[in-house]
Amino acid sequence: MIKAVIFDMDGLMFGTEKLALEGWLKASRQLNYPITEETVEMIRGKNENDSKKIFNTLFGKTVNYDKAKTIKDKYILDTVETYGVPIKKGLLELIKYLKEKNIKMAVATSTAEEKAKKLLELAQINNYFECCTFGDRVRKGKPNPEIYIKTMTQLKVLPNECVLLEDSPNGVIGGHSAGIKVFLVPDLSAPTQEIKEMASYICSDLLKAKESIEKLI
Predict the structure, then answer these.
(1) Inter-axis angle of helices 65-83 and 113-122, to 10 degrees?
(2) Which Pfam families match (predicted)?
(3) Which of the four pLDDT bands, split at 50, 70 and 90, describes residue 133?
(4) What CATH superfamily classification does 4-14+86-214 receive?
């Protein structure tokens, strides 16, 4: 029987990975930087520090990461403030079900605290979660398992007492390393065979994930 469910945020709860891709490509056009979809895929699920290191490795001093990120972040914020947070199919049904069953919920996201809190508040779901662990509050980002270990400590649960919902390969690797059952709900890219083997469940959306989680409670 599980006692807690840990949620990733971007790409899992919200369709913000698509907005991030659009934002990075906008920055690429605006600044004439060689940022491509492949570049964005490399940093998906990683925190800001690790993403910056990847940019520096790829581009050196030819690309100002902070300048491009500012354009990307503004694009996302402007979009969600205008059109609302794009909530993924099945999220509201799942969190309401878990609340009814008194299952603890937490967020473990690579996104920095200020931005993540803003999105959770705009989506009006922040009060569902017992705790949140943010990308700028851990020393090592995904795929390192630190963020999940820290979240489990806050929830006071063991790996076999919780499940993790993730959309990115880096998240799946980190959750698997932490010893947690991982529900993979793919977003922008199809998982490789290696990632599929690390996931305990692969679901097309959060409604399907809810059906599987119900059997574990």
Answers:
(1) 10
(2) HAD_2
(3) very high
(4) HAD superfamily/HAD-like (3.40.50.1000)
3-state secondary structure of 33: coil
Contact 143, 119 (CB under 8 A): no
pLDDT value, residue 63: 95
Q: In what order do the strands lie in the sheet with 4-7?
A: 131-133, 104-108, 4-7, 162-166, 181-184, 201-202
pTM of the model: 0.93
Q: Where in the chain are the domains?
A: 4-14+86-214, 16-83
- Whole-number Å distance between alpha carbons of 94 and 115: 23
How confident is the model at residue 170, as a pLDDT? 94
pLDDT digit string (tens) for 48-67?
Answer: 999 999 999 999 999 999 99
Of 9, 1, 4, nearest to 168 by C-alpha is 9
